[in-house]
Amino acid sequence: MAQFPINDDNSVQDAVNYLLSGPAGLGQFFSGFSSYIPAYLTGNYRPPFTDPSSSTSLYVSPINLSTSELLDPRTFKFTFASTQSSIPFALGAPVYVTGTTNDALYGGGYGPIGVIECTTDYVICRTNGSYSGTTATGGNISYSSTTVGSTDLTYISTDCNAKVIVNGNTDRVFISAQLNNIISFVDTVDSNFTYTVTINRYIGYPNNDPTNPEYIFVLDKTNGKSPIVSQKSYQYFGLNSATNPLDNVETIFSTVIDVPSSGYYWYIMEVSYNTTVGDLQVTNSELQLRSLSAQVVKQ
Questions:
Q1: Which of 297, 227, 299 is nearest to 267 (CA)?
Q2: Domain ranges of the chain
Q3: Cα separation of 287 and 270, whole Å?
Q4: pTM score, whole prediction
Q5: Could you give the dihedral angle defined by the CA atoms of residues 194, 218, 286 and 148, in that order, rounded to the nearest 10 degrees?
Q6: What residues have CB less than 8 Å from 179, skipping those under 6 apart?
Q7: Which of 73, 199, 208, 285 sits CB 3.0–4.6 Å from 130 for a disulfide?
Q8: For 24-55+147-298, which CATH class?
Q9: Cβ neighbours of residue 248 under 8 Å, at least 6 residues apart?
Q10: Range with the lowest mean pLDDT among 149-153, 189-193, 215-219?
Q11: Which pLDDT score, from 0 to 100, does residue 208 have?
Q12: How many Cβ atoms from other residues are within 10 Å of residue 123's Cβ?
């Protein structure tokens, strides 16, 4: 790093390089996203995390099933007991199945990868693991972005994200972000509700696939670390349909400093919806304004 006063030619060169990198070293590595175009959360585990063209339902009430079957070790087909009036599940939705005659195989959540095809008569899902078994009958399939009766956070990713490379222990990541959210919901009784906005840190690993090399990102819990970089929560009590929606809730992270070890990181602003009392279910989440920037600064 350049020093003052300048004593020799090397110091002049260092000073010029330091100025070109930006004030206080800012600008050495920058990544970010910003948009004023309204978009709806999809609830998907993989991009696109939002859809600017149409509203995606974040809640689908249970649909009765006639059969559940494996098309191949990673692909599941669920046929509805009756034809639906419209296509119920969006691509990538992490649906949940319960009550089949073989819940040991078919029961549970499907995310990732989630829904890969959906019609008014059936839905097909794909998983990361491989399975085997026979066809089952009965049960139901649903989708909810809201955790009810639990304080565990289920993260829903937004398109406010940035990928950066940290090269050493002296690097610092400066993060700024903003999210304005209109939250629509349904309920039948007065409910207590917590809305949480989190900046999470994901770490990237090569997938070691020579034919399709890419990075796989997982929440950075290495060495017992917390992946949460910053977080803000909003609590609402006694919500009912008369207060629907929660209008344009604003969250601003002005300056957050993260000090991860060397690696390739993906910072994502994510939301979670939790109902502790009642039966409130978030149906739509419309993001009005959203941005996130991450800059690596060498101290």
A1: 227
A2: 24-55+147-298, 59-144
A3: 12
A4: 0.81
A5: -30
A6: 158, 160, 197, 250, 251, 269, 271, 287, 289, 290
A7: 73
A8: mainly beta
A9: 180, 181, 182, 288
A10: 149-153
A11: 80
A12: 29
Q: Distance (Å, rounded) from C-alpha 269 to C-alpha 63?
A: 31
For 65, residues 6+ apart whose C-beta sits below 8 A from its C-beta are: 78, 79, 80, 81, 97, 100, 137, 138, 139, 140, 141
Q: What is the pLDDT of residues 84-98, one digit of tens each?
A: 999 999 888 889 999
Supply 297's token pair.
């600064």
